[in-house]
Fold this sequence. Notes:
Elements lengths: L5 E7 L23 H13 L4 E5 L13 H6 L12 H6 L5 E7 L5 H14 L4 E6 L4 H7 L6 H21 L6 E4 L4 E3 L7 E4 L3 E4 L12 E4 L4 H10 L2 E4 L4 H17 L8 E10 L3 H14 L2 H12 L21 H8 L9 H5 L10 E4 L1 H15 L3 E5 L5 H16 L12 H5 L22
Parallel strand pairs: 1-2, 1-13, 2-3, 3-4, 4-9, 9-10, 10-11, 11-12, 11-13
Antiparallel strand pairs: 5-6, 7-8
Helix pairs in contact: 4-6, 6-7, 7-8, 13-14
Amino acid sequence: MDKQILINAFYMASPAQAWTGLWAHPDAQGERYNDLSYWIELARAAKKGLIDGIFLADTLGVADIYEGRPDAVMRAGGMFPSNDPMMLIPAMAAVTEHLCFGVTANTTYEPPYLLARRLSTLDHLTRGRLSWNVVTGILASTARAMGVEPVPHDRRYELASDYMELVYKLWEESWDNDAAVRDKASRTFTDPGRVRQVSHGGHYRCEGYHLCEPSPQRTPFIYAAGGSGKGTAFAGQHAEAAFTAAHDKPSARRIVDSYRKAAEQAGRTPDSIKVFNAVTVIVAPTEAEALDLKRQYADYSNEAGNLAMMSSFLGIDLSRYDPDDPIEYVESNAMQTAVEAMTKHNGGKKVRVRDIAAFADLPGREPFVVGSPEQVCDSMIDWIDETGLDGFNLVRTVEPAGLQSFIDLVVPRLQDRGRYKTQYAPGTMREKMFPEGGARRPADHRGAAFRHRAG
C-alpha cells in the first residue's frame, strides 16, 4: 500500500515568516495575526482540508544581525512583531476535534518546570492533540534580551538533554495514572500516596511536584528540527517527528536516513521518527496561473527583509557583501545545516547574496513546488516515494489564500490517488501519527525510562 502523505500548515503568530513582506499582498491577511478570529478561521479551514496539524514556529529574539540592527525585519513584518503561539491553541482546539497542534518552545531560555506545566495544560485542553517542537535557540539577540551570555551550539544540545530528563520526570514519574481519584464520597480529589516529588540535580535543578495531573499523552508528542550532528543525535533520542528543509531529493534522502540511523543508535526502531520537509507550494488551476502567482509573490517579497532573516539563520551579516558575492562556509552558532546546504551540498554551484534576497527556489531553503494541481500532486508524491519522507510542512506565503488553494485543488487529487486520508483517525496526536501504538510513549523511547514503577 502506498504511503499516505502527512501535511502540516506552517505558521507563526506574526505578520509574515521567512518570506518577508508577503503580508502586504492584496490577498494576504497576515496583518490580522493578533486577531483571534484569524486563527479560528485558519483552524476551521484546516479541518475541512483534513490537514494533520498547524505547526507554530516561534522565536524569542529579533533578527538584528543584518546591518547590526532589526530595522529590515521590522519594516517587512518578518517574524516581528511576534506573539506567544501557545495562547492561540485553545481557541483553535475549541472549533476542531481532530486537528493537531505543534508549538515551538526553547530549552535554553524557558524554565523547564514552568514549561512542563504549560504543555501539560495544553495537552489537557486539546485532549491529547499537542506536540512540542523542541528548539535550543540560535539568536544572540535572545540571549541579550534574557540578560545571559549566548550558549555555543553543541553546549545547547547538552543542556537540552538534561532539560528533557527533568521534564520526563515531571510528566512520567510524578503522578500515577489514577492519582486524581475525584472521590466525592470521601471528599478526596488527589490521593497523596500516588503523587511523588521529583528530584533532579543536573544543570537544571528541581525539587517539586508536577502541578498537573497526567494529560492524555502525559508527554506531548515531540518534534525536533536540528540537522547538525548534535541535533540529529538529539532527535534520535527524543523526537517522534523531525522537521527539515532539504532543498533537493538526495539531500532529503540523506537526512531521512540520518534520522532513522540516529533512532536505531538510541535503541529505537528506525521508523519511530516521522520526517517532514518544508515546501513552498504555489498551486492554481493551470501552470500559467501558478507561475503568475509566483511572480506576484516575488514582487511583494521584501529583499532586505529576506536578507535580514537569512543573516540570522546563517549567523552572517549579509549587508557587508556585494550582491554577487558567493556564500562561503563559516562555523557559527546559528543554523549550520543551512550554511552547509549552500556551500557543501550544492554540487559546486555558488549561491550569491542576491539569490538569497529573492523569492526563489535555492539551496539552504525549502524546495518550491509550483504548477497545476496535477503537477503539484506528481511532485509531492515523487518526493515521498524517492526520499522516504513522511510528509510536508506547507511554508506560509500569501495566507490564508495559499492554504485554501492547496485544500481545494491538491487534497482531492491526492485522495483520488489514495495518497491522502479521506477522514481523520481517532485518538491523540501520537495515536494519529502511529496508529499501531497508543497514547503514551513506546517502551523503547527515552522518556519511557522515567515512568514510575511500583517498588
